[in-house]
């Protein structure tokens, strides 16, 4: 499976920034020029730009354009790519459930919603050569009229899942990384013994008012889980 088109845009612009072809404060190409260069739609370009904003490479000024950020040498940023995009053959993302359900206590608590409020649950597995490497579960508050398009959700990042109601540029993401003992559904899907250690990356998306708009976890099995995290200067 090749990388999605918007990831190619992300990597191309990152390369220009890290090689100093474009420097802090410089404007990057307009959306129209990026559409022409990569032969993609404006929506695809905006998805790529949103990733770069979220990772701290660029910032956006409404009505003017996008600019390269100044590096912040006083802090480290952990970048986590939940899609594990790769050019390797034999890798696949499989959607196993999209549903509208009532939230459990844990889901309601993390999303700060009442128990009678419905949520969209999205479950996916990430496979390599037919073996499940990760199990992904996301919860999003359901609002009447929200389209649930399974084809789009399959390859969507978490921020993209809620972007129809919220601006990706205004979102923040909080991560928690921990280890748990596998049991029930997790052990079955990851094909591990109950009690085996499983790595969990818990994500919470917040809007501009710091209110939760999405919550979920990704579970990784075994030593070769495919999880890669890089701490780097912003």
From TrEMBL:
Gene3D superfamilies: Chorismate lyase-like (3.40.1410.10), Winged helix-like DNA-binding domain superfamily/Winged helix DNA-binding domain (1.10.10.10)
InterPro entries xrefs: Bact_HTH_transcr_reg, Chorismate_lyase_/UTRA_dom_sf, Tscrpt_reg_HTH_GntR, UTRA, WH-like_DNA-bd_sf, WH_DNA-bd_sf
Record bears the keyword Ion transport: no
Source domain of life: Bacteria
Chain ranges of the HTH gntR-type domain: 3-71
Keywords from the named record: DNA-binding, Transcription, Transcription regulation
Record organism: Acetobacterium fimetarium
The protein's name in its UniProt record: UTRA domain-containing protein
Recorded coiled-coil stretches: none
UniProt keyword annotation of Transcription regulation present: yes
